[in-house]
């Protein structure tokens, strides 16, 4: 199977994976490399993937977002999903605006790895900014119902993973 182009991804019947990462996962011996992700997509005939660098999740969101942008620029089958570490983010609205200006259309949040709560003020502010800029929210949420108060009255698209 050839790699899918971004134009192909909108075609009927194209399968997309919205739950992918690449990079180094601390303490895990699994191969999370970008090359392996691309091979798996091709082997399973998945047309494309929203993906995030693990560097952004575990180490530095700015460096990880740069790595994610570079991977997506080099490989058409990858769509970049930025990330923020809400433990360290003092201006969620400003960060979302910056990410949107850089071309990101999705934000992946990982509270289970970073130890912040789904009812945090930082998440509420991030959600409001995502709604303002028309971005997609991908969030790991063991209790998605905790997100509902922050989403009330907004038109934000959310994928709870």
Can you offer a commentary on this structure?
By secondary structure, the chain is an alpha/beta fold. It has 7 helices and 7 strands.
Instruction: List unreliable stretches of 5+ residues.
Output: none
- Overall strand count: 7
From N to C, what is the helix and strand string? EHEHHEEHEHHEHE
Rg calculated over all Cα atoms: 15 Å
Class from helix and strand fractions: alpha/beta
**Principal-axis shape:** globular
Taken as a percent bin, the fraction of beta residues is: 15-25%
> What separation lies between the terminal Cα atoms?
27 Å
Helix content: 25-40%
Largest sheet: 4 strands, parallel
Compute the number of helices. Answer: 7
- Integer average pLDDT: 92
Strand order of the largest sheet: 4-5-6-7
Lay out the secondary structure.
Blueprint (H helix, E strand, L loop, with lengths): L15 E7 L11 H10 L4 E6 H5 L2 H14 L3 E3 L1 E2 L8 H10 L4 E4 L1 H4 L6 H13 L2 E4 L8 H4 L6 E3 L1
Parallel strand pairs: 1-2, 2-3, 4-5, 5-6, 6-7
In short:
By secondary structure, the chain is an alpha/beta fold.
